[in-house]
Amino acid sequence: MSRRIQEHYKRRATASRAYSDYSVVPLEDGTYRVEKVDGTTYLVNLDAGTCTCPDFQRRIARREELAGVWCKHMHLCAASFGRSR
Ligand SMILES: [Zn+2]
Predict the structure, then answer these.
(1) CA of 24 to the centre of ligand 1 (A)
(2) Domain segments of the chain: what residues?
């Protein structure tokens, strides 16, 4: 896993602006619904390490060297609910 890229996403997620731009709603099945202020919604599964955002789907999930990297939304969910990796 690329530590540098992981830290990049983590910084983006933990920037104070991220908390006002997004709201995170835990769902019953253990996943999270991340809603951006503009209405965009993504589904995050921390156990599986997946997110439905384009950044994850088109970039992280497709590149072997990025395996295990969390996108901004996953970091945001983890930070909001006291989980870390
Ligand atoms: Zn994402």
Answers:
(1) 12
(2) 3-80
